[in-house]
Design a protein that fits this description.
The protein is mainly α. The longest helix is centred in the middle third of the chain and has 42 residues.
Length: about 375
């Protein structure tokens, strides 16, 4: 959807922004009106979120296939043929995922829930971690001998509860996605036309806007499009990398539930700073069911994967795409998690980036 070479709505460098001009009541009213429209749109999206699911998925697909389409066009392929080829690839990947990956993934997540919420499957691992944590805590000067076992038990209970709840939320989210299977067939169709006609759609949208606000609104739309496109493409590659290699490592180490654990690790990668640790905990605790050595090897494998991702992939693929300060990123993740749980943590960064771009546009100097 986003075209890096499209400068149609880019403001020329050094162009005036109205600094020092008197505030116009008309311009002020325009800002208030646009803020009201944005709030109304957000309210409708929140209230009727299920209606926009295929459109949101279509936008994601469009962002993912746009680089493939652009590469094919540079090699002389017609735009429609390039989009059709990318479209077929997406449909095949979605179909294979639904047919071969989703059923065992759901079964594995349900197994983790049974093991760590009912307490029936994680007793051996819990005992091993509790003994290990109790031994470490007992060496701390400010922890008494009697308090060390209780603190270790509390730590293990918290970790077990987190793993069970995380697996449960993941299973419910995947079940809900599977229940909306029709959207997985509608979304690629929408994405096809969205990618093919993106320039016409932009021109049409711009023609609806008042002439005085057209440039500013389209600049804001372009900024949002660029931020979301960079974030979606980067996350798609990074999560795929982490999921494939962490799953391979867990399978080679013969850790039970390797597929759902790799899925959790990949999804947690979306959460900045906290995600790698949150994705590591379930794998380590499950590895403890085999042995302490296996758990140690899992930590080493995940650390190596994270080092490659953070040192090689993220800087080259993602970079500073959303334009947020690290403190803003951390704050958004904490607030999102507090309001909406794991789902809120996953969408916190792109949502904050969009709101930040809109706020900068609304509160920039009035012309």
């Amino acid at each position: 959807m986003s075209d890096p070479g499209d400068t149609r709505y880019q403001r020329p460098a050094g162009s005036p922004r109205g600094h020092g001009r008197p505030v116009s009541l008309r311009a002020l009213f325009s800002r208030v009106a646009w803020a009201a429209i944005i709030m109304a749109v957000l309210y409708v999206v929140i209230r009727l979120g299920h209606v926009f699911v295929p459109f949101g998925l279509a936008v994601v697909i469009s962002y993912v296939i746009s680089p493939m389409v652009a590469a094919a066009q540079r090699r002389g392929a017609p735009r429609t043929a390039a989009i059709a080829t990318a479209y077929i690839i997406v449909v095949l990947v979605l179909g294979a995922t639904l047919a071969f990956v989703l059923p065992p993934l759901l079964k594995g997540l349900e197994g983790i829930v049974t093991a760590y919420l009912s307490g029936s499957g994680g007793a051996g691992a819990a005992a091993g971690i509790e003994d290990l944590a109790g031994g470490w805590l007992s060496h701390l000067s400010f922890v008494s001998d009697g308090a060390a076992p209780r603190l270790a038990r509390l730590l293990v209970d918290k970790v077990e509860g987190y793993i069970g709840e995380l697996a449960g939320q993941s299973a419910r989210a995947l079940s809900a996605a599977a229940a909306q299977i029709g959207n997985f067939f509608i979304a690629p169709v929408i994405a096809f036309y969205l990618t093919r006609d993106v320039d016409c759609l932009r021109e049409s949208f711009a023609s609806w806007l008042p002439p005085g606000s057209r440039e500013k609104v389209m600049q804001t739309v372009s900024d949002i499009d660029a931020a979301l496109a960079g974030w979606v493409r980067g996350i798609a590659i990074v999560t795929a990398f982490v999921g494939v290699f962490s799953g391979t490592a867990l399978a080679l180490l013969k850790v039970e539930y390797a597929l759902p654990l790799a899925f959790i690790a990949a999804m947690m990668e979306v959460i900045p700073y906290f995600g790698p640790i949150l994705g590591l905990l379930p794998a380590v605790l499950m590895a403890f069911r085999r042995s302490v050595v296996t758990a140690f090897l899992v930590v080493l494998a995940f650390t190596a994967i994270q080092q490659i991702e953070s040192a090689v992939l993220s800087p080259r693929i993602m970079g500073d795409r959303v334009g947020l300060h690290p403190l803003a990123v951390i704050s958004s993740v904490i607030v999102g998690g507090g309001l909406f749980g794991v789902a809120g943590m996953l969408i916190a960064v792109p949502a904050t980036a969009v709101l930040s771009i809109i706020a900068k546009s609304l509160f920039s100097p009035i012309e």
